Predict the 3D structure of the following.
Amino acid sequence: MTRLNIASRLLATAALGAIALAVPATAQETTAAAPVTTTAKPEIGDFGFDLTGMDKSVQPGDDFYGYANGTWARNTQIPADKSNYGMFTALADLSQKRTQEILEAAKADPNSMIGRAYSSYLDAAAVEAKGLAPIQPWLARIRAVDKPGLARLLAEADRSGVQHFFGGYVGQDDKNPDVYIYTMFQGGIGMPDRDFYLKENERNTKLQGAYLKHLENVLTLAGEKDAAARAKAIYDFEKQVATVHWDKNDSSDATKVYNKMTIAELAQAAPGFDWQAFIGGIGVNEDSILVSQPSAFTGEARLLADAPIGVIRDMLIVRSLDGFSGVLPDAVAQEAFSFYGTALSGTPQMQERWKRAVDFTTNNMGEAVGKDYVAKYFPPETKAAMDVLVRNVLAALDTRIGNLTWMQPGTKVKAKKKLANFTTKIGYPDRWKDYSKLEIRGDDLFGNALRSNQFAHDDNVGRLGQPIRRWEWGMTPMEVNAYANFGMNEIVFPAAILQPPFFDPHADAAVNYGGIGAVIGHEISHHFDDQGAKYDETGKLADWWTPADVAAFEAAGKALIAQYDAYEVLPGEKLDGTFTLGENIGDLAGLTIAYDAYKKSLGGKEAPVIDGLTGDQRFFLGWAQVWRRNYREQNLSQRITTDPHSPSIQRTWVSRNLDPWYKAYQIKQGQKLYLAPKDRVRIW
């Protein structure tokens, strides 16, 4: 689950017709939804929860994750081609296998674009026979570039999908969400975050050495001489770039990153680079743009002006081979994986080629695949049951807003208006993307990748001056995730996540509300979290809270920050409660309002006891079950630095802030997760 604003900021779809469910104010009434009356059994266990995965030797008040999931965690091995494994990855594997079946059928049809794309990736022999020949013309361009021609070359790199010193995309203008604008953000480093270069510890020192060796190996594969010395020059330059980068907390602040300026103003603020040539070269012909981290652009422009052209060329060679590694010979693919897969995330083994072929096809033509996927795997009963769940969760938040003691009456009116303006998208888009202008050949994998990147770039830039595409999705139907989009004032749930353990129409209502209900609540609440609350009912970045509202909200946020700051996930490595605040608020609010919605769905009746468990106990077990996940140590460490979501154990522990959890499991003072009532964080 994640927050999307404009392009993206990440927990997380046919013949049936698409669903774009707008919920008006008049619909903010709870719809009773007791467990579905059916003879069909839940897919998991007796009522939708896997009791065999519990460890009842653990007290819920000491470690609720261990109590609900401990036996599963001990007995579950992480597959060799995974950096972590849990409910998300299990469903992703299922989605990948189902998509393979669709693509295997499609490849028999010479007129099928997705079939040709899939076939081109499977033909490993053809890729090896061509070697680096497909990318050599581009590498020759890099080797010949001089400083005056750099801006134009980087514009072409941008269009071709080669990362470089800064990036950008066309999305909604945060302060004028009915208009598209081009937004730029900092770049220029090959490791995921500035902290990997600047934060000194044993793990980072090891990663820095592995990355330096990776740079050397890629230059060697490209046929360059003196690779070790040139790799060191690249690394030293990237470390300088890292010093001018904004940190992740400032870069996640919607207010701080909104900096509108003309291209002339950017040139004045960041001299030494031909911004007009670059921005014009990528197809942006408008004068005003957004610059997310202005001081970083000032610093990067200075560094680019001062750097030897040879270092810049070498960086671009490495970025090009890394970026296209999946469609180049195996030696290049394995080298990229050895660093980004193994060194960074601890994954021992690359995925089988068929899996990579599926991912390649869905990454580039996701909705063309998605049409077939939802026709086969998204039944009408799932949509109908989800409609009820969404309405109940929306109604629960509407009630909670009305009962808040810290929010001013005028702000409540605006908050309710924002909630009433929500659009909920379930399963898949009501309009599919048109790929007819994309050329896909069965014998040209590299060309397919390059043309797909160029197609996506041109499609994105082509938004400028056009009406907002409110029908468009930021995820494919096959993705096991969900998201909130602030500018669209929408929440989106792809088809693939609407399956057990998140959701099963035949499961107990308590488990469904603890699973997908809390996910729905999580995404809804993102629109009222530390960043989403800055956007009004139209999707506009605006100050619509009173100072008293902001002060009360920030005070609650500080308490949640302190709670998560205290969690030591690995020896010497703690969570950053500020960085993870928005997602932690999402978990807290999502679980809180999902619980209300569950209770209301019972229509005043008592929930039955099933297998000795009360409805409330099953609700919280439903929450814990979706977070079952084992991590490789390297992956967990990387996530602490780069992922705004807390790890699964700590996500499960958010229940310690809810009073009903204490009553359900008789949590007592002295147990490790116990919080005194005054210390429990209550926001919504």
Notes: The longest strand covers residues 176-186. The two ends are 19 Å apart (CA to CA). The chain has two domains: 2-27+49-100+356-433+472-679, 132-327. The CA atoms of residues 101 and 190 lie 35 Å apart.
